Amino acid sequence: MRNFIDVSINGVRQKIQGIDAFRTLSDFLRYEQGATGTKVVCAEGDCGACTVLTKSGTEENFKSINSCIAFMWQLDGQEVVTVEGLKKNDELHPAQLAMIQCQGTQCGYCTPGFICSMAQLAQDSKNENVVIDSKRAKNYLTGNLCRCTGYDSIIEASTKMDLTSLPDLNSAIVFDSASVELEFDRQKIYLPQTLSEARTYLREVPKIVSGATDLGVLHNKGRWSPQVMMSLKNIPELAHITRSATHITIGATATLEQCSRELESDFPEFSRLLRIFASPQIKNSATLVGNMMNASPIADSIPFLKSADARIHLLSPTGERVVDINEFFLEGYKKMDLKPQEIVTHISLPLNGLSFKLYKVSKRKDLDISAVTLAIGFEKKGDQLLRFQLSLGGVAASVLRLKTLESQMLNRALAEKDFIHLFNEIDPLITPQSDVRGSSDYRRLLVRNLLLKFFHEVEGAL
Ligand SMILES: Cc1cc2nc3c(=O)[nH]c(=O)nc-3n(C[C@H](O)[C@H](O)[C@H](O)COP(=O)(O)OP(=O)(O)OC[C@H]3O[C@@H](n4cnc5c(N)ncnc54)[C@H](O)[C@@H]3O)c2cc1C
Ligand code: FES
Ligand code: FES
Fold first, then answer.
1. Nearest to 51, CA basis, from 127, 145, 134, 122
2. Pocket of ligand 1 (CB under 6 A)
3. Ligand at shortest distance from the CA of 148
4. pLDDT, greater one: 383 or 140
5. Which of 1, 202, 231, 316 has the highest CB neighbour number within 10 Å of its CB?
């Protein structure tokens, strides 16, 4: 058992204890390390000024994350590279050189964050042997904002990086693999190595922290003060997505980026939806289980999980149970069938031949919160639907699965009037709110139009 965090920052191995282990990574870098290249602007994962690169001792590639919402203890067993660490042997990194050559910076406040995202773009493009065009550059830079230079020169710099001279950022450190128990003041964090160890800690009812992309924002806004916490990130079996003949099983610490990549062949529509979910930095940290357990009525994954009849695998000090997601979420805002000492270990998705159409409507395409979401799982034969499983988000206190209305769409020739009729039946059941993302009437109209969109897309495919 260790009582310190084992982490490498720009190749220097450090043992972190006390208050420092509970700080955010950006605060630690800036105030303890003097690594002030990393900037903080929004402190809520939205602007990318605080972007750094991380990778665990067992991973091959670095990935970008937002250091403003990452806690130091989350970096246990990880290598961190900041903008200061990209330069090797006095040679600037190709991302830095290209930024200078293309005049991609003015005030410079956003630049270190852009450079770190560009360094991941360069690494992945070299590994995958892919030429960087402006579309690929934009996808990697979705999570970085610049207020003064304008994006043209930054995108040009991204496409002009010399991929033949990328420095090796690995430090080849072998980290200590023991479990961690850390305490400071009233705060405690447990980082167990096995599920049976995790189970013993559940009696203390720790708050489970996964990617902290929800909890880190709440912390920075002063709306959550951590006390007893547990992270499952050091339990190897929970980090994977596995496939059997009948199911896909997603571990509690599998990230959204992993889901987007590894679910592509079985659930291409979900993988596509994840491409417009948040930014690369968020998806490199955030987990699917964390998105589900945040239980927001506008969480982008829940409508899909409900329409797919996902099953939730729960662990408590007294045993395990598996619950159908449609029984797990109860009526009301963030209400779940979750006991105080229970945690989620896995989500499983049946492989039963359903196809999916998933819709997210938001004010901006990228990095925006949904106004309304719609997920339909379906099977069709000829011009008829044999199965039809409908979930709606953003129109009530929780995501709705409308099982009672589903059967009326089955085994009849698809017709537009049936979808209009379906909307007329849904309309009195939903209670959308008016807020900055849209009025109640607008949300109702979206539901109607998305149902018609589904009809035209499916009819078009016939
Ligand atoms: C800039 C930004 C953009 C975002 N964009 C989107 C978006 O486009 N769509 C969207 O839906 N969301 C979005 N989010 C919200 C957030 O990123 C997601 O909800 C994310 O999936 C949360 O996962 P996490 O691992 O970071 O969860 P955490 O923050 O670690 O935890 C979230 C909740 O889940 C609980 N929890 C986590 N793991 C477990 C477990 N194993 N057992 C029991 N409880 C658990 C935690 O206790 C906590 O209550 C965004 C957030 C930010 C900051
Ligand atoms: S400071 Fe804006 S994302 Fe971290
Ligand atoms: S260079 Fe000033 S914010 Fe980007």
1. 145
2. 44-46, 207-215, 217, 232, 252, 256, 277-278, 282, 285-287, 289-291, 293-294, 299-300, 343-344
3. 3
4. 140
5. 231
Confidence of residue 461 (pLDDT cuts 50, 70, 90): low
Which atom of ligand 1 lies at the shortest distance from residue 344's CA?
Answer: 42
Dist. CA 144–CA 41, nearest whole Å: 11
Pair 284, 63: CB distance under 8 Å? yes
Query: What tokens does 162 get?
Result: 């010399």
Give the separation between CA 106 and CA 121, rounded to whole angstroms. Answer: 22
| CA nearest neighbour of 399 among 372, 367, 434, 361 | 372
Superfamily of domain 94-165 in CATH is: [2Fe-2S]-binding domain (1.10.150.120)
Where are the chain's structural domains?
5-85+171-230, 94-165, 236-461
461 backbone dihedrals φ, ψ, rounded to 5°: -80, -15
Q: Using the predicted structure, report yes or no on whether residue 6 has a pLDDT greater than 90.
A: yes
Query: How large a percentage of the chain has pLDDT more than 70?
Result: 100
Check if 315 has its Cβ closer than 6 Å to any atom of ligand 2: no
What distance in angstroms lies between residue 46's CA and the mean position of ligand 2's atoms? 6
Q: Cβ of 294: how many Cβ atoms within 10 Å?
A: 16
Cβ 47 under 6 angstroms from ligand 2: yes
| Assigned superfamily of 5-85+171-230 | Beta-grasp domain (3.10.20.30)
Positive or negative, the Cα torsion across 271, 275, 279, 280?
positive
Q: 238-255: per-residue pLDDT in tens?
A: 999 999 999 999 999 999
Spatial separation of the C-alpha atoms in residues 401 and 376, rounded to whole Å: 10
Q: What band does 364 get if pLDDT is binned at 50, 70 and 90?
A: confident
Same CATH topology for 94-165 and 236-461: the answer is no
